[in-house]
Specification:
Length: 242
């Protein structure tokens, strides 16, 4: 099997709370490693790539410093390592251990940004998530919201304890339901002919490949710290932990 034919099964899609996983090493490329499956989420959609560690039965260990999806073969997910592995490790199993505290904060913020989408009636033009803050940019020429209002409404939605569940849709179905698309000028990626959706019960549904919490009550209390004009027609809304 050629390198291009190798694929990684994204365990994080269906099991975002998995913290460890045994997986087989398929290939290496410089200081990158490709496994048959992974719990590490790759950089994308404003969410950072996961970090953590690898441990092989022979005692070899590596730090995972970032995770990326291959731009050409999008079913391959490459783990960036602090030190390259050797060819002799190909075919062996390794224990993947996620930097869970970091990932969980990303999950909390990512779900919270979907709540923010439900509050602001404007296309999203940018997104960024970190451990201590997150933001969305909106095509919003005139400010129609306030920091105090966003803070109050976000926390009210969080307290609803609404269920957050994944679903999927075909590109053809999405074309008939364009109101689900919140991002301006960004087409949601399809894998194996399906586009992943994230549903927040009674609040929001939109295409998303990121990792999320099970219920909005897991987000905890947040505060809107900034509403900033970044261009003539764009407003940046930033949130952080209270």
């Amino acid at each position: 099997m050629s390198l291009h034919e190798l694929v990684t099964h994204p365990i994080y899609d269906d099991e975002p709370y998995s913290k460890t996983l045994e997986a087989s090493l398929l290939a290496i490329k410089e200081n990158f490693a490709l496994f048959d499956k992974t719990i590490f989420y790759p950089l994308g959609g404003g969410q950072p790539g996961d970090t953590g560690t690898l441990e092989f039965p022979d005692g070899t260990s590596r730090n995972v410093t970032n995770t990326y999806r291959d731009r050409e073969q999008t079913q391959q997910i490459w783990l960036e390592l602090d030190t390259p592995l050797s060819e002799e490790h190909i075919g062996l199993s390794a224990l993947q251990t996620l930097n869970w505290d970091r990932r969980y904060r990303h999950m909390q913020f990512h779900t919270c940004l979907h709540l923010l989408c439900a509050l602001v009636d404007a296309p999203v033009t940018g997104c960024n998530i970190s451990e201590d803050k997150a933001r969305l940019d909106f095509d919003l020429p005139e400010p129609s919201v306030t920091k105090e209002g966003i803070t109050e409404e976000l926390n009210a939605l969080i307290q609803k304890a609404a269920a957050v569940t994944p679903a999927s849709i075909t590109p053809e179905e999405l074309a008939s339901n364009t109101d689900l698309i919140k991002s301006a000028d960004v087409a949601p990626p399809a894998y194996n002919g399906r586009i992943r959706l994230v549903k927040i019960e009674g609040i929001d549904t939109q295409p998303c490949g990121g990792t999320h919490v099970k219920t909005t009550s897991e987000i905890n209390t947040v505060v809107c710290t900034k509403i900033k004009k970044v261009s003539k027609s764009n407003r940046r809304i930033e949130i952080s932990w209270r």
